[in-house]
Amino acid sequence: MAGTNDSTREALLDAAKVLAQTQGYNAFSFRDLADRVGITTASIHYHFPTKAHLGRELVIRYRERLMEGCRQIDARATKPRERLERFIGVLRGAIEKGTRMCLCGMFGAEFATLPGPVRDEVRSLFEATEGWMAGVLGEGRSVGVFRFDGDPERVARQVFASLQGGMMTACAFEERFNAVAEGLIRTLTHKG
Amino acid sequence: MAGTNDSTREALLDAAKVLAQTQGYNAFSFRDLADRVGITTASIHYHFPTKAHLGRELVIRYRERLMEGCRQIDARATKPRERLERFIGVLRGAIEKGTRMCLCGMFGAEFATLPGPVRDEVRSLFEATEGWMAGVLGEGRSVGVFRFDGDPERVARQVFASLQGGMMTACAFEERFNAVAEGLIRTLTHKG
DNA sequence: GTCTATAAGATGATAGAC
DNA sequence: GTCTATCATCTTATAGAC
Predict the structure, then answer these.
(1) Does A27 touch chain B (CB under 8 A)?
(2) Which tens digit of pLDDT belongs to each residue from A64-84?
(3) A58 touches A13 (CB < 8 A)
(4) CA distances in angstroms from B90 to B72, B84, B131, listed in the order given
(5) In this predicted structure, what is the pLDDT of residue B2?
(6) What is the DSSP string of A134-165?
(7) DSSP alpha helices (H): ranges in chain B?
(8) In this complex, how many residue pairs, one in chain A and one in chain B, have their CB atoms less than 8 Å apart?
(9) What pLDDT digit, counting tens, does each position of B159-191 carry?
(10) Is the CB of B113 within 7 Å of strand C?
(11) Which nucleotide is closest, CA of B44 to its C1'?
(12) Helix, strand, coil distribution of chain A in percent, nearest 5
């Protein structure tokens, strides 16, 4: 029902996603988007009245797909450590596909300049992802593979911030994300 | 000699710094800058031929001042842990002054869209800061207050990425940087 | 749904007077 | 050094034909 196959609309969101991940919300224009999809800028407005509408739906779809990815990770891997590693693999995949940031990191940095409705969805994106990760970390600790003090929610925020920062660094220095990710896992699994 | 007191030029760099930290390179304009300093956009071009020149000098000055700050930390604190905490305090200060990103994080995220000369200075900014931090971490480990495996340079990159990610998150959720920073110190000083 | 045409404003940048 | 005036181009967005 929701999400009927409107191919132009989907193509616009696909192109906008890549542009937003590589350049940011402020650095891509309707013209960039129109050129990539092969229509005129006027046609974009038929699908999305304003850039803010486009941005908002972009983040909503990104969150839904990321959460769907997390559910698939849960279905395919039962061990918390493997779940975490698979999640990190998703982020790594974005970098390897062309030094793309996660939308969390990119829109987080641009947060002050985003339209209100986009901001709301970005916050929701953070909370959903960190919530899933808190579950993985909490379960990992209870089975004894992860080791940390305090609230899993707090540690999830810390781990997520670290990964986002690693992706950001990878924009300036290729091959730096892996060092951050591996160090993170080592820390979490460290047997003091 | 270098850096004669050209007050308009300095005022431009000051205003550009705040705008770059809060909005990013792509989101601020010569008009924003001119309005804040009280001159016209044409006058900006007398001091900086292009926006790329302005951006480049902005990053250079930022790096020089940050490194000067690190030297002052070294002079005022001898314990590695206190040095790290003071550095974190500098980042926290930027957030508390108005949810400002570090230029590393903001320009790192925008990296793909930055003019070449600005990119070069951003890389240099990362390297200088991470180099200083590697020294603090290495010394901390040798005196037994920090505990980590592997190369101090690698861990410095990880710690720095984590802090940058924490600042990014703080743009969307106030009061989140402290949780990241405190968790980080706890991890580094943990007595397994 | 997509187009052409157009709008109103912003953008970085230049020429030349003062 | 700073200004006015101007530039070409880009920006998001709208009206109306097809």
Answers:
(1) yes
(2) 999 999 999 999 999 999 999
(3) yes
(4) 12, 10, 17
(5) 46
(6) HHHHHHHHHTTS----S-HHHHHHHHHHHHHH
(7) 7-23, 30-37, 41-47, 51-76, 80-96, 103-109, 116-142, 152-172, 177-189
(8) 148
(9) 999 999 999 999 999 999 999 999 999 999 987
(10) no
(11) D2
(12) 75, 0, 25
Q: Do B24 and A26 touch (CB under 8 A)?
A: yes
DSSP state of A50: S
Q: What is the pLDDT of residues B40-96, one digit of tens each?
A: 999 999 999 999 999 999 999 999 999 999 999 999 999 999 999 999 999 999 999
Q: Which contacts of A180-183 are long-range, i.e. CB under 8 A and separated by 24 or more positions?
A: A180/B157, A180/B158, A180/B161, A180/B162, A181/A88, A181/A91, A181/A92, A183/B150, A183/B154, A183/B155, A183/B158
Residue A191 has pLDDT above 90, yes or no: no
Q: Do A108 and B26 touch (CB under 8 A)?
A: no
Which of the nucleotides lies closest to B52 (Cα–C1')?
A: C12
Task: Give pLDDT, residue B99.
Answer: 92
Of the partner residues A99, A109, A162, the one whose CB lies closest to the CB of residue B161: A162
Tell which phi-psi region holds residue B24, choosing left (phi > 0), alpha (psi between -120 and 50) or beta.
left
